[in-house]
Design a protein that fits this description.
The structure is a homodimer. By secondary structure, chain A is mainly alpha-helical. Helix content of chain A is about 75%, strand content about 0%.
Chain lengths: ~240, ~240
């Protein structure tokens, strides 16, 4: 009972941060789907926001979600010095050094031949940065040691890469029904992806390797790999 | 010399906050100008961002500026508890309860008859909230008393209103050369404005009255109205 309560309290204490990160993620999807960027009609099996409510509302809804992410995180019950650090990490992971930076290079690379280094930059910024930040923020707010927080950040970077490679593969191999969004759209738009650069088989291996590295870094730094191990496997399991 | 140094140090200590607010303001202009929203070609006398670099880059540049605003503010040298409060105020003033909320109602009101209450909502949210937040954040970070910070917030709301009414009037009465952006565009789009609702003369009076109220609330609460008094007058002086 005491353990369950402790887990419950720990979960409660990072709920603001978890919501904030999910909001940044959603905001980025809404803007990504816009006609000027990915021009996607379907997301999670339903029409994208701009298809349903128009472009102006989609742009503004994304902006509002982004603002709300910081507002919610600013209400986190932890010590102010940790909350400031979390807000800093979230903003850095969202901007030019993270999500938006990756998105910009992604947009500029469309229709061009992209080398491995650029592809890694895109994925590590566009997807990896926010996943890494979520691990870093959770570890820091939850009171992890410096080594543990660092291990969690590296873990986040690795499973972020694994997840994005898996996403590239699924875009190539799934039906729209399975994905809840358009399939094969990356190829049509000549987008930089792992399957395009390395082929499907090699991409699968790279995704699994990245997830394995993520689990290993936790084990080597005394961080429980129970739930996080499951999560790492989940990021690639749809490939098996 | 000591006074000049004190002023210099005070200015230095809120520089991060000032930059953050300017970045939120710029981000909102970049998104406002987009084809899906105001579709403006000119801003500050030069082509708008999307005219020069395309819509995708304009959306992403706005997002990046927004993220950078929070990152910069998170580096503020003040006590963490104050910095968290400042980040909370900035995010609230930017989102549905401020800037974006006003923008949404503004977009939804285009081409419709708008009553005085709706127009006040639009202006107080779209323009007033960020100006009020800049006064509130500066007052709080600078170590003002609760009454002084409250007075500064009210002052910000009043001059925000004055500034927006003046902006409405200038859009109606100026040339594109004077404005650095398209003139008369509000009327063409049947946008809700003070001149459209109250006429030019009454609008001028309302702007001056709002600025006067802003100055008065400072004087009544022991806040120096030197620079801030000038600023209040500046917000409407182009109308004289």
């Amino acid at each position: 009972m005491a353990a369950a309560e402790a887990v419950g309290a720990a979960r409660e204490s990072v709920l603001d941060a978890a919501c904030a990160i999910e909001m940044v993620h959603c905001f980025s999807l809404v803007h990504d789907d816009l006609p000027a960027i990915d021009n996607d009609d379907l997301r999670r099996g339903v029409p994208t926001l701009h298809k349903k409510f128009g472009e102006a509302m989609a742009i503004l809804a994304g902006d509002a979600l982004f603002a709300l992410a910081f507002e919610i995180l600013s209400h986190s019950p932890h010590e102010p010095v940790r909350v400031v650090a979390a807000l800093r990490q979230l903003s850095r992971a969202s901007g030019t050094q993270g999500l938006v930076g990756g998105e910009v290079v992604d947009v500029l690379s469309e229709g061009r031949a992209v080398d491995a280094e650029t592809l890694r930059f895109i994925h590590s910024h566009k997807t990896g940065a926010l996943i890494a930040a979520s691990c870093e923020i959770g570890g820091a707010l939850g009171g992890g040691s410096e080594e543990q927080v660092k291990a969690l950040t590296t873990y986040g970077e690795r499973i972020g890469l694994a997840f994005q490679i898996a996403d590239d593969i699924l875009n190539e191999t799934s039906t729209p029904e399975q994905l809840g969004k358009a399939a094969g759209s990356d190829r049509e738009r000549q987008k930089a992806t792992y399957p395009a650069l390395y082929g499907l088989e090699e991409s699968r291996k790279m995704a699994i390797q990245a997830a394995d590295e993520g689990i290993r870094v936790l084990r080597n730094n005394d961080v429980s790999d129970g739930f996080l191990g499951e999560l790492a496997l989940y990021s690639v399991e749809r490939l098996h």
